[in-house]
Amino acid sequence: MDIGTVSGGTFTAVPGLTDLAFGDASASSGLALPAGPIVLGIAAANAPDPVATFSVAPASGQRLFALALGSLAGQGEDFRLVQVDTAPATWSATSVMPG
Fold it and tell me: What span, in angstroms and rounded, lies between the C-alpha atoms of 49 and 57?
């Protein structure tokens, strides 16, 4: 799969987050996102259109990582993004549904 941003209906894969197989991850150093609203997309590898999009709004200085969980095939758990905020003393996780 490819992970990227969606703007004006155009999906742009993020270098380092392309052609990922089940269980793959970004580099441990992570990637910086701008603060404020952004739409993330998940697409099949090398596909021009995302199969799911997620609206998120990271705050300045916020430290997050995200996990894509569930099934796109409609079997088992619904597909979703879980963002984990590592800044507080006790980490917190929030599910973000597609759309």
Answer: 22
Domain ranges, ordered by start, for the chain = 2-96
Give me 86's structure tokens. Answer: 């590592």
- CA-to-CA dists, residue 27 to 77, 88, 93, angstroms: 27, 23, 21
Nearest Cα residue to 96 out of 52, 33, 31, 34: 52
- Over its C-alpha atoms, the chain yields an Rg (Å, rounded) of 13
Q: Average pLDDT for consecutive 10-residue bins of the chain (99 residues)?
A: 94 93 85 90 94 93 89 81 89 93
Amino acid making up residue 90:
T
Stated pTM of the model: 0.85
Q: From 67, 56, 64, 53, select the one nearest 25 (Cα to Cα).
A: 67
Locate tokens 């997309």: which residue?
Answer: 41
